[in-house]
Amino acid sequence: MCLTSNYFTRDFSATNIGFRMISHPTRYTCFSALAFGVLGVFMATSGRLGGQEVDGRSTVEVYSGPQVGESLPALNIEKVVDGEPNTPMDASAQDAKHPHHLIIFLHKMTRPSVAFTRMLGDYAATRESDGLSTVVVFLGNDATQLAESIHRARHALPQNVTIAISPDGEEGPGNFGLNRNMTLTILVATKETIVANHAIVDPSLPVDLPKVLESLCAVVGGKPPTVESLLQSQPGGRPMRGREAGADKPNQPDRVRAREAAPPRD
User: Fold this and answer.
1) How do residues 182-197 score in pLDDT, each as one tens digit?
2) What confidence category does residue 181 fall into, taking pLDDT thresholds of 50, 70 and 90?
3) Residues 6+ positions from 129 with CB-CB distance below 8 Å
4) What is the pLDDT at residue 130?
């Protein structure tokens, strides 16, 4: 250890701390390293928590993607057809029939993220007649492997929405400024302006999905459906249990899953 007990007792006094720090460069270096180490742990923890609630307490908020009030950038993607990247398109292009956009960036393909995306995407597909365009964009550095994973998990993904891959790798399109520490980044836009941004680290149906549905229905109209009703509408739908129903069980994994909502293992 660089900071010994003698150092603390004899060097850290109000009258000689400055002198001691200058006279002992090694001790000063060790103290600086410790200070920066503590700062680094704090910043890393803040990035992982991502503004979520932990045991009912709010944490430091982080950002991913364009914020509310900003313009919706061009979104160049490749639609996935039969497991292969195909059909380049601009998913944010203005369309008179679809002035509203729901864009789901899936940074990490996990059981909770796929289940969350399936439920949100299936509901969004029913609002297409209200002018909503929905696209799910998978992010990853190996486009071929990502396309194969999507193809294997196609039955667990939302139906009747655009499924695509970003050609820009795991960072996503540079003009969106996405945070790769997120699991999901969900944007709601209308008339080329962002009206809602949901950056999620640990997707939870009872906690996060109602917030996204409220943002979405504020644009397309109507009353947001309940998570319970959406679960019932899924294949093999069942009532929520335990934490699915909102019970406070910290440090337990999120058990909310729609049936077949996870990509098959290799």
Assistant:
1) 999 999 999 899 999 9
2) very high
3) none
4) 96
Cα–Cα distance measured from residue 42 to residue 46, given in angstroms and rounded to the nearest whole number: 6
- Could you tell me if 234 and 82 are in contact, meaning their C-beta atoms sit under 8 angstroms apart? no
pLDDT at 7 over 70: no
What is this structure's pTM? 0.69
Q: How far apart are CA 24 and CA 228, in angstroms?
A: 64
Q: How far is CA 172 from CA 54, 147, 168, 169, in A?
A: 27, 15, 5, 6
DSSP secondary structure string, 57-119?
Answer: EE------SPPTTSB----EEEEEETTEEEEEEETT--BTTB-EEEEEEESS--HHHHHHHHH
- Token pair 């509203």 is found at 100
Contacts of residue 24, Cβ cutoff 8 Å, sequence gap at least 6: 11
Reported as type and span, the H/E element at residue 49 is helix 25-49
